[in-house]
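Hey, resending since the last one bounced:
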Amino acid sequence: MKTRNIMIVGVGGQGSVLASKLLGHLLTTQNFDVKVSEVHGMSQRGGSVVTYVRYGDKVYSPVIDKGEADFIVSFELLEAARWLEYLAPDGQIVTSTQQLDPMPVLTGAMEYPENLLAKIQASGVKVDALDCVKLAEQAGSTKAVNLVLLGRLSHYFGDVKLETWHEAIKACVPPKFLELNMKAFELGRNA
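The structure tokens again:
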């Protein structure tokens, strides 16, 4: 199997590290060689956070180059746009429609781009966008956006059984948050 590439992009504190850990665990149980690499910006100050997940028969490097990402999983629209050039020609974006103002917008130096989702779609890429914050709230906490996104991503992994996703969630999520995260995953999967 050729190496497949997933980029998880967001802003510090949104849960991208847990999402990448869970994906890595899931893919390892499917007998793939998996490499996970975290690239943090100013994550503690709300800066961009990127995680690479690569899997296949044999993976030699955890880094994804421009034009190689089979999937970009984005917690926020501006982050989806920021990393668009990394998407492979036949790649898929799975994104939350959430918009978080980066520091230049907060300081008044710039404005958040208008109609960003429409602009991303107009670029010709495949986009699966949903209001993950609303679904996470339905599950019980806005902090569960990561599991909503993974639930949505699971649609594109038809060869991985639902029970296998559930086992990965159980292995990676603390027991006291398990019910909430399972609900968030299901809401994302069925949205």
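The first helix runs from residue 16 to 29.

Sorry for the duplicate.
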